[in-house]
C-alpha cells in the first residue's frame, strides 16, 4: 500500500499550480501518490498539469464538474489508496522535507499536525506555530489546547495534516459542500474518531496569500457557519461556556465582522444578527483571556458600531 495520498484540488490556478507540483515532486519522501482534481478550470491549469504529469506515473489527473473545492477533495478521497491522506491547495507549496517530517512522526498517531508559514508580498511569516506534543484525545488538557486561540487556527484548516484514510473511510467522513467553513467541519468530524494526535513545531507548509481569492470575498453565511462549528464542538466535547467556548464564540463574531468590513450596511446587518443571538448576552458576562475580545464585545453591546466599523476598516 502507498504510504501517503496527496490530494490537490485545482480551479483556475495557472499562475501557481506548476510551483505547487514541483514542490511535491522534490520531496525527500518518495512513497506517495498525487491525486490532482481539476474542477473545470477555464484557464490553462489543465494543460499545465497534463504536461507536468507526463512520464510521472505516481500522478493522476481527475476531472471535477466545477462543484467547488469540497467536492473536488471528496473525489480525491474516493480515489485515494494511501495509508495516510494529506491535502495541498493549488496556490500553496510544501518544503522538500514536508512529507518525510510528518510521516516520521506518525507512529501510534491518528492525526499528525504541523505549523503553517504564510507568504505575502514576497515575505515569509509564521502564521500559526504549535508545540511538539503527543496528545491523548479527548482529555480536558488536549481539548483546552486544540480549541484555544493559539492552536485552533491550525486545527480549523484541512491542510498541514496527515489523516488516516481508514478512519475517513470507516466513518464516512467527507467535506460538506458550502461557501465557507468546510475545512473546519471536516476536521471537527475527524477529531471525533481520534485518540492520539501528534503536533509538530515544524512549519513546512507555505500558504500563499492572494488578495481577491474566495477567502477574501464577502459571504452572507459566515456568522451562521462559524456558529454552527462552535455548536458542533460544544456538542461533541461539552465546552459548556468554558474559556474555550468563549474563544470559539468570539472567533465567530470576529470572522463575521471581518467578512463584512467592506460595506457599512453589510457590517451593520451582520452586527444585528450577532447581538440577537441567544448566547450573546451570556458571553457579555464572561471574563476574557484576550483584551481584544473584551473590547469588541464592549463596542457591540454599547452600540459603538460605527467606531467598530472604522477599527475593522483601518486595522484589516
From TrEMBL:
<dbReference type="GO" id="GO:0016757">
    <property type="term" value="F:glycosyltransferase activity"/>
</dbReference>
<protein>
    <submittedName>
        <fullName>Glycosyl transferase</fullName>
    </submittedName>
</protein>
<dbReference type="InterPro" id="IPR029044">
    <property type="entry name" value="Nucleotide-diphossugar_trans"/>
</dbReference>
<dbReference type="InterPro" id="IPR001173">
    <property type="entry name" value="Glyco_trans_2-like"/>
</dbReference>
<keyword id="KW-0328">Glycosyltransferase</keyword>
<keyword id="KW-0808">Transferase</keyword>
<dbReference type="Pfam" id="PF00535">
    <property type="entry name" value="Glycos_transf_2"/>
</dbReference>
<feature type="domain" description="Glycosyltransferase 2-like">
    <location>
        <begin position="5"/>
        <end position="170"/>
    </location>
</feature>
Amino acid at each position: 500500500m502507498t504510504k501517503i495520498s496527496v490530494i490537490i484540488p485545482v480551479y483556475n490556478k495557472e499562475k501557481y499550480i506548476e510551483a505547487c507540483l514541483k514542490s511535491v515532486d522534490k520531496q525527500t519522501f518518495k512513497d506517495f501518490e498525487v491525486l490532482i482534481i481539476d474542477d473545470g478550470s477555464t484557464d490553462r491549469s489543465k494543460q499545465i498539469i497534463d504536461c507536468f504529469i507526463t512520464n510521472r506515473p505516481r500522478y493522476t489527473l481527475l476531472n471535477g464538474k466545477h462543484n467547488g473545492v469540497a467536492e473536488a477533495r471528496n473525489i480525491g478521497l474516493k480515489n485515494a489508496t494511501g495509508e495516510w491522506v494529506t491535502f495541498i491547495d493549488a496556490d500553496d507549496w510544501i518544503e522538500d522535507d514536508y512529507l518525510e517530517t510528518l510521516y516520521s512522526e506518525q507512529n501510534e498517531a491518528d492525526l499528525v499536525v504541523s505549523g503553517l508559514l504564510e507568504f505575502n508580498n514576497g515575505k515569509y511569516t509564521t502564521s500559526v506555530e504549535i508545540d511538539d506534543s503527543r496528545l491523548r484525545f479527548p482529555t480536558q488538557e488536549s481539548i483546552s489546547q486544540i480549541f484555544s486561540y493559539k492552536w485552533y487556527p491550525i486545527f480549523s484548516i484541512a491542510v498541514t495534516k496527515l489523516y488516516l484514510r481508514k478512519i475517513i473511510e470507516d466513518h464516512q467522513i467527507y467535506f460538506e459542500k458550502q461557501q465557507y467553513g468546510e475545512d473546519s467541519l471536516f476536521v471537527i468530524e475527524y477529531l471525533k474518531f481520534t485518540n492520539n494526535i501528534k503536533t509538530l513545531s515544524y512549519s513546512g507548509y507555505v500558504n500563499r496569500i492572494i488578495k481577491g481569492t474566495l477567502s477574501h470575498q464577502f459571504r452572507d453565511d459566515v456568522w451562521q457557519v462559524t456558529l454552527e462549528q462552535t455548536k458542533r464542538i460544544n456538542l461533541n466535547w461539552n465546552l459548556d461556556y468554558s474559556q474555550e467556548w468563549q474563544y470559539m464564540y468570539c472567533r465567530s463574531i470576529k470572522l463575521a465582522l471581518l467578512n463584512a468590513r467592506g460595506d457599512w450596511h453589510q457590517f451593520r446587518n451582520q452586527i444585528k444578527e450577532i447581538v440577537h443571538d441567544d448566547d450573546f448576552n451570556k458571553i457579555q458576562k464572561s471574563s476574557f483571556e484576550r483584551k481584544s475580545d473584551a473590547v469588541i464585545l464592549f463596542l457591540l453591546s454599547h452600540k459603538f458600531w460605527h467606531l467598530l466599523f472604522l477599527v475593522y476598516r483601518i486595522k484589516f
